[in-house]
Amino acid sequence: MSPSAQCVINPDKRIDIVSTHDQLLGGDDGQIFMGAIFPADKAYNISLAAEARKIAQTLAEKGALGRFAVDFISVKDEAMARGSIMPSRSICEKAARHIPF
């Protein structure tokens, strides 16, 4: 599964976290979108939304507006008994190409 958050940056710079969900991936390479489960898992949906808000705030400060999604990579940490989330590198690189930092 791949967690995702959908966000909106409004013209007044207000940020809305519209939803979180877990993307079900399949196919030979595990990268084909097969569907989604709404909302994202209870173990991380709050932290997922919080991290998405941080990304949205940064993009808003750079002048971005509108609807976008952030895909995350989730790694289970048995020692901590909780999941860690981080935005996928490809999403960050795509955003960087469109917003001058």
Overview of the structural elements:
It is globular, with a radius of gyration of 14 Å. It starts with a strand and ends with a helix. β2 (15-26) and β3 (32-37) form a beta hairpin. It has a single domain, classed as 2-Layer Sandwich (D-amino Acid Aminotransferase, Chain A, domain 1). It contains 2 helices and 5 strands, in the order βββαββα. The model has no long low-confidence stretch (mean pLDDT 83). The longest helix has 17 residues, at 45-61. A 5-stranded antiparallel sheet has the order 3-2-1-4-5. With 101 residues, the chain is of the alpha+beta class.
Note the gap between the termini.
Answer: 30 Å
Low-confidence stretches: none
Q: Approximately how much beta-strand content do the residues carry? A: 35-45%
β-strand number: 5
| H-E order | EEEHEEH
Helix run count:
2
In spatial order, strands of the major sheet run: 3-2-1-4-5
CATH class value: Alpha Beta
Measured on Cα atoms, how large is the radius of gyration? 14 Å
Quick description:
With 101 residues, this protein is an alpha+beta fold. The chain has helices at residues 45-61, 89-98, and strands at 2-9, 15-26, 32-37, 66-77, 82-87.
